[in-house]
Amino acid sequence: MNKYLIAAGSSHFQALYYLSEAQKLIQAQKNFNMCARSRIFKNGSKFMTINRLFYNTVFAISSTLEPLVFYRELKLIENTLGRIRSYKNSPRTLDLDI
Questions:
Q1: Which end of the chain is more exposed for a tag (fewer CB within 10 A), N or C?
Q2: How confident is the model over 59-80, as pLDDT tens digits?
């Protein structure tokens, strides 16, 4: 069994919705077991000239999936929730990092 920490973040104006939906999709995965979740943190961007707000949380997950397959599953969840990578540090509906 592999253990992963997933940093989840959103800078969308509906960030709380996207983080909640990400949690639901992760919990629905048959090969994922969510062990814990942190509270949601709200902070400003350090690198953006516009004071954009970011919302972040962390999920602790155990899984039988190997790291590369696990990573691909996370990217599918991002895509399902409308993640578009238009340019570096662009606003995002959801960002899931291992």
A1: N
A2: 999 999 999 999 999 999 999 9
